[in-house]
Amino acid sequence: MQRLKQKKIVLTLGLLTPLVLTASKVNAGSFGAEIFCTMRDGGNDHESSWDAAYTYIKKQKGGFFKVSPKQAAAQITESVIRDRETFSYCVEYLDNLHPNRKLIRDLKKEEERKEKEAQEKEKKRRKLEKELEEANEDFSEESIDRYSY
Question: What pTM, to 2 d.p., does this model score?
Fold first, then answer.
């Protein structure tokens, strides 16, 4: 009987703990989005709005692991998209939460372009080597000896 009670308690805690932790994370992200969007709509700049929202999300998350700026930005974006009717005025500010995405895309395109150029150079080099080998085969030893002094 005692063991059955212990198993029920452990099972109940095991089921409720993730729900409690997830709910606080969702609420923190949602209210963080509200802070960010309200401040931006009120005329505040991106930095001050972001700092206020990020500070709130970090404080609410608590725990052993720290919320990264990338995670907080994702939570705010998710909350705004999920509740579009409430945050319809805020969609235009979301691109500021991920400022380096364009830079990352541009760097990736530049890297791909350089790689493609390197491949084309390699193809040209191989083609020239092949043509040179074919041209060298056309010359016989006699023709080389005939012109040597």
Answer: 0.50
